[in-house]
Amino acid sequence: MATVATVATRRPVIGITCYVEPVDRPPWVAQASALLPRMYLDHIARAGGIPVILPPVATETADPADEASARDQAAELLTRVDGLVLAGGADIEASRYAALPHPTAQAPRPDRDAWELTLAQVSAELDLPTLGVCRGMQVMAVA
């Protein structure tokens, strides 16, 4: 019979942010899929953690109640993980930090920007261990 690990002996659950992108895999075309380089999962597992992918959720609307709901969702999610990794990826949209886009900046990703900024703000409030990788460091700085 399987035993339940005690809090002191259980492996930490680590949430990792990712993209949602259209992917072609026959017979599906442009299937929305959560994408993350496998190395993130492998590194967390090798370090003794249990990786969990956290795709962006809809957080940008004109309704302030929906934004509050996104913060509530982020808070509920982050109370269920032991750490957060804000993964690398495209640049954050310059308007998020009151700047003009640089000519070499990548195309903005509003869904991921909004979700990860919310996660970064809530993780700081919760004092949750958070690691930013490349783009993730940008998110933490902007948040």
Description:
Helix content is 34%, strand content 22%. The chain has a four-stranded parallel beta sheet with strand order 4-1-5-6, sandwiched between helices. Strands 2-3 form a two-stranded antiparallel sheet. The mean pLDDT is 91. The chain is globular and about 55 Å long. It contains four helices and six strands. The protein has helices spanning 38-46, 64-78, 110-126, 135-142; strands spanning 13-17, 19-25, 28-35, 50-54, 83-86, 130-132. The protein starts with 12 loop residues before the first strand and ends with a helix. Helix 2 packs across helix 3 (110-126) and helix 3 crosses helix 4 (135-142). The longest helix is centred in the C-terminal third of the chain and has 17 residues, at 110-126. By secondary structure, the chain is an alpha/beta fold.
The overall strand count is: 6
Mean pLDDT: 91
**What is the structural class?**
alpha/beta
Relative helix content: 25-40%
Query: Globular, elongated, flat, extended or rod-shaped: what is the shape?
Result: globular
Secondary-structure element string: EEEHEHEHEH
Largest sheet, spatial ordering of strands: 4-1-5-6
> What's the helix count?
4
- Runs in which pLDDT lies below 50 for 5 or more consecutive residues are none
Amino-to-carboxy terminus distance: 46 Å
| Biggest sheet layout | 4 strands, parallel
Report Rg.
Answer: 16 Å
> What amount of the residues lies in strands?
15-25%
List key phrases describing it.
single chain, about 140 residues, alpha/beta, four-stranded parallel beta sheet, two-stranded antiparallel sheet, 4 helices
